[in-house]
Amino acid sequence: MTDAPPSPRSDYDRAITLRPTTTPGRYAAEFSDQWLIGSAVNGGLVMALATTALATRIGEVGGHLDPIAFSGYFLTASQPGDVVVDTEVLRSGRTLTTGQVSVSQPGRGGIPVERMRALVSLGDLAASAVPIRAQAPPPMPPPEDCVSSSEQRPPGLEASALLDRLDLRLDPATAGWAVGRPSGRGEIRAWLRLADGREPDPTLLLLALDGLPPVAFDLGIQGWAPTLEFTAHVRARPAPGWLQLRVTSENLSGGLMEEDAVVWDSTGRLVAQSRQLCGVRVPDGYTVPG
Amino acid sequence: MTDAPPSPRSDYDRAITLRPTTTPGRYAAEFSDQWLIGSAVNGGLVMALATTALATRIGEVGGHLDPIAFSGYFLTASQPGDVVVDTEVLRSGRTLTTGQVSVSQPGRGGIPVERMRALVSLGDLAASAVPIRAQAPPPMPPPEDCVSSSEQRPPGLEASALLDRLDLRLDPATAGWAVGRPSGRGEIRAWLRLADGREPDPTLLLLALDGLPPVAFDLGIQGWAPTLEFTAHVRARPAPGWLQLRVTSENLSGGLMEEDAVVWDSTGRLVAQSRQLCGVRVPDGYTVPG
After folding, report:
1. Contacts of A127 (CB under 8 A, 6+ apart)
2. What is A147-279's CATH number?
3. pLDDT tens digits for chain A (290 residues)?
4. Checking CA distances to A64, which of A90, B13, B99, B279 falls within 20 to 30 Å?
5. How far is residue A71's CA from residue A119's CA, in Å, rounded to a whole number?
C-alpha cells in the first residue's frame, strides 16, 4: 500500500506532470530526452506543459480549464532537465480566464533562463455548439495507406526521440520531400496519434499542431525551423482516434515564414488551428522547386 | 519661443505619443475620444501604442525597433482618458528583441485596470530581402471606384469617430452587407489610408490590420465583435500610399470566429498578416446567407 499517486501510463501524461512548489503559482516539472527533436525539446510539449500549469493554477482558484487561445514566444531552446513554470491569472471573466505563463530552466550557476513566455485564454469547450462554418478536412488516403514516419524518417531527424512518441502517417501526395522530391507547394498533410495510444484532449492539440515536420521541407529547405511565435486556437474537444493535420505556408521572406496548421478529429470536425512564425535558413541561390 | 517639442501634425502620431515616467519601463499616454469604435477605443490603436512603448524602451537600451510579431490579449475595453504602458524586455538576441507590454487605465478609486497584455518581437525590417514567396493581392477596382465608408457607414457604426480618422474604400464586390445584402462568403476587401494623409509605417500596420469592419458583417451578423486575441506578423516596411486589405473567416462556432487579415502596400507587396479570435453574437435560428 502506498499513498503515492498512480504513475501515468502515457509518456505524454508523464511529460506534463507538475509538482507544486512553495511559491504560489509556481510548478516544477522535468523535460526528459524522450521529447527531443534535433537538439531541443519539442516546442509543442513546452506549450502543453505551460497550458497544463495554468489550468492547474486556475483550477485551484476556480475558473475555466480548456485552452481556447494560446500565444507563445520562444526565447531559448528547451533542454532535458529541471523545469520551472510560473503562472499568473490576469483576468477571470464569465466565459474566459486569461493568464500568463513563463517556462524556465536553470542555466549556468543555477540562474533561471526563460525558455518561453505565453499568454493563454482558457474556457469551456463543452459549451461549444455545433459549428456554423468550418473548413472541411482534405481528402486523404487512410492512415494504413500513408507513409509512416517511423519507416521513412525526415532527413536529418532520423534519431529524434519525438518521432518515437508519435505515430505519424504522411499523405504520400505531400511526402515527396522525404525522398528528395519536394513539391514546392508548401503543404504537408498527415494523420497523427500518440504512439502509446493515449487519446487526444484539448491540451494535446497544442502538441499536435506543432507535431509535423517543418513545411519548409516541402519547399526543399532542410534544417531546423525554430519557432519564434506560435498562436493556437482550440475550437472543440477532439473525439478519440486519429487526428488529421494539414500544414501550409504562403509567405517566405527575410528568413522568416508563416506556417498554418489545421487539425480535424476522427469525425472530421475541425478542432484546432494555428499559425506560427518560424526562422528558415534559405540556401544561397535558392529557387522554389516544382 | 518655447522649448516644448513640436506638436505632431498627424492625429495618429498624437495618439501614440508617450511621456516618460519616473518608473523604469513605464510610459504615460492618453486615449482621446477620436479613436472610438462603438463605445471602446479601437484595439488597433491600443496595439500601435503598446508597440511604440516597447520600441521606445528598447531604443533606450539598444536593440531592434520594428515590430515583427505581436500577440495581444484584450482583457477589458479601453476608454478615453489616461493610459499607463508598462514594458519589460525579455530577451535581446542577434536578430530579434522580445518583450512584454501591459496597457492599463485607472479604474474606480484609481486602481489600475489592465486593458491588454501583449508579447512582441521586434527586429529590423530593413534587413528583409525580396520575398521568395508571397500571397498576391486580389484584383480590386481602384480606390476612386470603391465605396467610401464616409459615405456608406456600416450599420450601427454611423457615429464612430474611428471612421473619421481613416479613409476606407470598400471593394463593391464585398460591400453588399452595407446595403443589407451580405454575401455569406466571409470576406471584405478594402483600400485604407489615414484620413490626414500620414503615410504608413510598420507600427501603423497593426492599426490597419484591425481597421476594417468585422468580417462577421459579410455573414449577416451585426454588432460588435470584440477581439479576444490578435496576432500580427509584419513582413516588410510599407511604401507610401494606399494599403490594400483583405479580411476573411472560415470558422465560426461556439460564439467565436477567427478573422484573418492581409495587408499589401501600394506596390502590391505583402507587408503584414494577422489572425484574431473574436466573439460574435449569433442570432437564434441564424443561417449563413447566400
Report:
1. A95, B254
2. 2.40.160.210
3. 445 555 678 999 999 999 999 999 999 999 999 999 988 999 999 999 999 999 999 988 777 799 999 999 999 999 999 999 999 999 999 999 999 999 999 999 999 999 999 999 999 998 666 899 999 999 999 999 999 987 766 666 666 888 889 999 999 999 999 889 999 999 999 999 999 999 999 999 999 999 999 999 999 999 889 999 999 999 999 999 999 999 999 999 999 999 999 999 999 999 999 999 999 999 999 999 98
4. B99
5. 5
Task: In whole angstroms, give the CA distance from residue A183 to residue A177.
Answer: 7
- This prediction has a pTM of 0.96
The CATH superfamily assigned to B143-279 is: Acyl-CoA thioesterase, double hotdog domain (2.40.160.210)
Q: What is the distance in angstroms between the Cα of B6 and the nearest Cα belonging to chain A?
A: 36
Among A259-263, B107-111, B129-133, the range of highest mean pLDDT? A259-263
Between the two ends of chain A, the Cα-to-Cα distance in Å is 64
Q: Which residue of A has its CA nearest to B256?
A: A235
Q: Considering only alpha carbons, which residue of chain A is nearest residue B94?
A: A75
Q: How far is A170 from chain B (nearest CA, A)?
A: 24
CB neighbours of residue B138 within 10 Å = 14
Q: Where do the domains of chain B lie?
A: 11-125, 143-279
Chain B environment of A288 (Cβ under 8 Å): 132-133
Chain B residues within an 8 Å CB radius of A96: 228
B96 vs chain A: nearest CA distance in angstroms?
A: 9
Cα separation, A279 vs A253, in Å, equals: 10
Between chains, do B132 and A286 touch, taking CB under 8 Å as contact?
A: yes
Class of domain A11-125: mainly beta
Interface A–B counts its CB contacts (< 8 A) at: 161
Length of chain A (residues): 290
Answer whether A168's CB lies under 8 Å from A153's CB.
no
**CB A231 to CB B275 under 8 A?**
yes
User: What is the per-residue DSSP string for B165-209?
Assistant: HEEEEE-GGG-GGGGT---SS-EEEEEEEETT-PPP-TTHHHHHH
Asked, colleague to colleague, whether A11-125 and A147-279 share their fold, the answer is yes
Query: Of A220, A226, A155, A214, whose CA–CA distance to A190 is shortest?
Result: A214
